Structure formats: C-alpha cells, structure tokens
From TrEMBL, chain A:
UniProt keyword annotations, A-Z: Membrane, Transmembrane, Transmembrane helix
Record field: transmembrane: 34-52
Record's protein name: Uncharacterized membrane protein YckC, RDD family
Coiled coil: none
Stored InterPro entries: RDD (IPR010432)
Primary localization class, coarse: membrane
Organism: Microbulbifer yueqingensis
UniProtKB/TrEMBL annotation, chain B:
Keywords for this protein: Membrane, Transmembrane, Transmembrane helix
Transmembrane segments: 98-119, 175-196, 216-242, 263-283, 289-309
InterPro entries the record matches: SpoIIM-like
Organism of provenance: Microbulbifer yueqingensis
Protein name: Uncharacterized membrane protein SpoIIM, required for sporulation
Pfam family, one: SpoIIM
The keyword Acetylation appears for this protein: no
Length: 228, 319
C-alpha cells in the first residue's frame, strides 16, 4: 500500500498526522542546498582574495568549506525548525520520529552519517534505504530516529457556494452525508460539467437532472454543514 | 452540533493561536492550556466526522503547537563541562571492546608495514606512488631548511585549515562508514595504519627520523588517538547491525548511535586540538628536538591518562 501518511499518538491522546516526504522532493531540496553552499564557498573565496589574504586566506577558506560541508544542514535544521533553505523551498522539514522538533544530537548524527548514505556514489545506499523503509528514511534517519515530512503551508480556506440551504431527505446515513458535503466543499475544484454529471448519478433518488440536481445537492450540503 | 456552529464558536481562538504560533520564538501566553484545548477540539471534530478541511486545519494547528511546546532546550554550559571532564572518557571506556579492536586494526598494520618498510627499501614503493615518497622525503630532510613544511606564519594558518578539513573529514568518514556493517570503518583504519606505518618506516630507514618524530609526536597524541576512536565509534554501529541482540536492527542501531555520538563529540574536539598543534606547534623550528619529544611524550601520557582515568569514581550520574 502506497501510503505516505505517518501517524504519531501524542501524550494528549491525539493522533498527529504528517506526510513523509519521498526521494524526489528531497533530492531537489538537496540540489538547492548544494547550490547555496557552492555560492557561499565561492563568495568566501572571492572575499578572502579581495582582502589580499593569499596563503592565510586559503586556510580560512578551508575551515569555512569544512564547516559548510558538515554543519550547514545541522545549523539550519536545529535553528530553523528542521528546514534548510532547500527544504524550506520544497515545504519539507526534518523532525524527530515522534514529530517533536529535531534535536542537536539527532541532527548531527543524521548529517554525519550522510557519508554512508552517499556511498557507493550519488546517494545510492540512501535511495535504497529510503525505498525499503516505511517512511522514506535513509540510514542516517534510521540511526538518528528522524523523518522528513511535508510541513503543510496554511491552505486557503474553502469557500462554500452561496445558495439557499435545502432540507435533506430522511435516511441519509453518515457516509452519504459526507459525500454530499465533500461535493459542496469542492464546488471550485471540479469542473461544473463533471459536478453535474456526478449529481446526475442520483437522479433515481432525487428525480432531478443537470444544474438542478447539483444545486439541490449543494443545498443539502450547506444544510448539513449547519446553514438554515 | 453542526460544523458551522462549531467553527463559529472556536474561530476567534484558532485565529489568535495561529497568529501567535506564526511569530518565531515569541512566547505564547497559556500555550499548554490552549494546546490541550485544540487537541480536544480536534478529537471532537474527528469523532463527529467534520469535513476534511477543518480536520486538516486543526491537525496543522495542533502540530504547530506541539512543535512549539516540545521545542529543544538551549544547550547548557554545565553539560559541556561535565562532558569534557567525565562524559567523554566514560563513553570511551563504555565501548572498551570496540576501542581496543579499532586500535588493533589501526596499530597492527602500521607496525607491520613500518617494520617492513624499515627493513626493505623497495616495499614503500609498492604502497605509495614515488612522487609522494619524494615529497615526504623532502619534507623531513634534515638537510632542508624547514622540517615539516616550508612556511611562515601565513602558511601556518593555511595548514591549520588544511588539517581541519582533511583530518576531521577523515575521522567523520571513518565513523559514518561503520554503518556498512563495520566494514567501512575497518577499511579506513587499516588504510590509514598502512599509510602512516609505511611513511614512518621509510623515513626512519633513510635516517630522517630525527626530524620526523619530533614533528609528529605532539599532535599525534591527539590525532592518532582520535582516528582510532572514530573507528571505534563506527565499529559500534556495525556491531549493532551484525548482532542486534534481542532488539530489532533499527532499535539496536539507534542505541549504538547514541553512545557512538558520545565518542564522536570528543573526537571532534581532539582533532581541533591536533590541528592547532600540528599547524602552530609541531612546525615550529626554533625549538630543540629534545624539547619537542619530551612535550610530545607528556601529551601522549596526558591523553591516554585522561581517557583511562578521568571521570572514574565520582557520582555516576549519566549526562
């Protein structure tokens, strides 16, 4: 079953839901980070050369590139809510497996072990591990007990159609009600023709067709949501 | 209760909490109480099968509050002091088996190849390309002006950067490669042992020992020990995968990784010290070789003594 959703029960007895992020967005995020890192390394080099520090400048540059190579992800992940700039660009975030913010030790570990995931070349082992493990975890994620999830942006609130509510017929069970409410809620997402077609399926029950049927169902949906 | 009434009743609270959580780092008044409130509302909404939109919004809100509540504590200074004084050597001793094994994997090839290259002058050329051997020879030639490397104060800084990037990178890789059932760590340990042993044996054979040993003995105390320790940390990871005991491999790996990291923090510190010594002390030319040897021997005694004895006896409170 291809299901990326990932549920954790909190001490408050709530099931928190998150979506684990797969290899493709993570590779893209990595590419963005690699670009930024390269940019910083080059900028550092230009800056040091302009400052006229030749041999000593190279020393500082080596220290800088060492720090970027190993600690760039760690600093961002811990201080910026699990998001390096690349991850932020793709709406990803690293969290501990219990969905709490990632800690220093976990972030350090997963980024030190990046080297093992990189082997034999181009993150070969990491990709295999991501494919085989439940929540797309590379080896570093497993050892540090972290997951990369989608940090959902705040979606726009759905608007409801502006219609008079209709009294629903008797005998609608919970599932029917949910189906009608979903249809009402998604009035912007599906084409009008498709919605009319869907509403038309209920013609034997409602006795209406086309725009009328759709309007009737939307009216019921509004009623079920609480409009009067 | 209809969803619309439910939403109308709580909307103001949600908006307020959403706004408060959006500001980074600010304190949210009454956060725990409000978090529990949203948790309860999410549970109610789920139970009443309200629409997907509302459930997702509440889930998002709960998650944001959860992240805020369980956010990390700032690092504490006392924890670091405790780690350096006792935590690190204890972590090393706790993995004594892996440490001895890593030391052997590093030291034995070094001794064998060192002796081999000392006795047979062609052996070194089967291991290293001739240009590299020539570079080493010119670096430690007693007739040369500068034992170690040719440089002034400027190039000291350059070499510092080089040692940081190169040596610490090697240590980190040696550790990480342990994840491949320990094979990677073993490879790096043996490889470095062979390399260092061959160079030392060859230089001794051609009589450059009088410049070579005073140069390497000081930082070697930290550097060689740290390489062996990072290998030991890597072997811990491999051991957990090969023989997880009564746990699943993932669980065993997690436990092993936690204790291995306790070794790696200290290894990192040791390598920074080694880079400092190697760049600014070992290369100093004004000091007599005898003084350097004596200082180096003292450093070895201090490092080994520290790892063997620091943090013994006192309260066993784990950091």
């Amino acid at each position: 079953m291809l299901d990326t959703s990932y549920t954790v029960e909190t001490p408050e007895g709530i099931d928190l839901q998150a979506q684990a992020a797969g290899p493709v967005p993570r590779i893209l995020a990595y590419a963005v980070d690699l670009f930024y890192r390269t940019l910083i390394v080059v900028a550092l080099w230009v800056g040091l050369m302009l400052a006229g520090l030749n041999t000593a400048g190279w020393g500082l540059w080596l220290v800088g590139s060492f720090l970027l190579e190993w600690f760039y992800p760690v600093v961002f992940e811990v201080l910026r809510n699990g998001q390096t700039p690349g991850k932020q660009a793709f709406g990803l975030a690293v969290v501990n497996a219990n969905l709490t913010p990632v800690s220093w030790s976990a972030s350090l570990l997963r980024n030190l072990l990046r080297f093992a995931d990189f082997l034999p070349f181009a993150y070969g082992i990491g990709l295999v591990s991501m494919t085989l493990s439940g929540q797309f975890r590379r080896l570093g994620d497993m050892a540090a007990d972290t997951v990369v999830i989608y940090r959902a942006a705040q979606g726009a609130r759905t608007s409801l159609p502006e219609l008079p509510a209709c009294v629903p017929p008797r005998g609608l069970d919970a599932e029917d009600q949910r189906a009608i409410i979903s249809l009402t809620e998604r009035h912007r997402d599906l084409s009008e023709a498709r919605q009319q077609e869907l509403a038309g399926l209920l013609e034997p029950v409602t006795g209406k067709t086309g725009a009328n049927a759709l309007q009737f169902l939307r009216g019921i949906g509004l009623w079920l949501l609480g409009a009067r | 209760m209809k969803q619309r009434d439910f939403e109308a009743g709580h909307e103001a609270g949600w908006l307020e909490l959403e706004a408060a959580l959006r500001t980074d780092g600010g304190r949210v008044a009454d956060l725990p109480a409000r978090y529990r409130q949203v948790c309860q509302q999410l549970a109610v909404a789920t139970e009443r099968q309200y629409t997907r939109d509302l459930l997702e919004r509440l889930n998002r809100l709960v998650m944001a509050a959860h992240q805020r509540i369980y956010r990390r504590r700032p690092l504490q200074k006392s924890a670091w002091v405790g780690y350096v004084l006792a935590g690190f050597p204890r972590a090393v001793r706790a993995q004594a088996r892996a440490v001895w094994l890593a030391t052997a994997l590093f030291l034995l090839p070094a001794l064998v190849l060192g002796l081999g290259c000392y006795l047979d002058d062609s052996l070194v050329y089967t291991l290293l390309p001739p240009e590299q051997v020539a570079t080493f020879e010119s670096m430690y030639d007693p007739a040369g002006r500068t034992p170690g490397r040719e440089r002034g104060a400027e190039s000291d800084l350059y070499m510092f950067g080089f040692y940081i990037k190169n040596n610490i990178g090697i240590a980190f890789r040696t550790f990480a490669a342990g994840l491949l059932f320990g094979i990677g760590s073993i490879f790096f340990l043996v490889f470095n042992g062979v390399y260092i042993g061959a160079v030392a044996g060859h230089l001794t054979r051609i009589g450059f020992g009088s410049t070579f040993y005073p140069f390497v003995i000081g930082h070697g105390a930290f550097e060689l020990t740290a390489i062996a320790l990072s290998g030991a940390a890597g072997l811990c990871l491999g051991q957990a995968l090969i023989d997880p005991g009564g746990r699943t491999r993932t669980a065993a790996l997690r436990r092993a990784a936690a204790s291995a990291m306790q070794i790696m923090y200290g290894t990192f510190l040791m390598l920074v010290i080694a880079a400092f010594l190697e760049a600014f002390w070992s290369s100093g030319q004004s000091l007599p070789a005898g003084l350097k040897l004596a200082t180096g021997a003292t450093l070895w005694a201090l490092v080994l003594g520290y790892l063997a004895f620091a943090g013994r006896g006192e309260g066993r409170s784990e950091p």
